[in-house]
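Recall the central idea of this unit: under ordinary conditions, the amino acid sequence of a chain determines the structure it adopts. In this exercise we apply that idea directly, starting from the sequence alone.
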Amino acid sequence: MGVDLRDPIDLRPQQPRTAGHHHPRLGEMAEVLERVIEPALAAVLVWRTVTVAGPILLGVIALVLWKRSSGRRAL
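Accordingly, the structure predicted from this sequence is:
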């Protein structure tokens, strides 16, 4: 009734079911997508880094300068 756990497990790589039935232009389309999507993702990553980290960095710099200037006045 159940699964026999003593049966060996076949770990060999299996052939894909669609082997030999690929459209000939799928490889070309994948290359085009790589060339278009990778730079777009890089641009989004840079944009998000600048828009998130930029104001935080400016705030930290302003806070440090403000603390340094207020510390000198107290002397």
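DSSP finds one helix and no strands in the chain.
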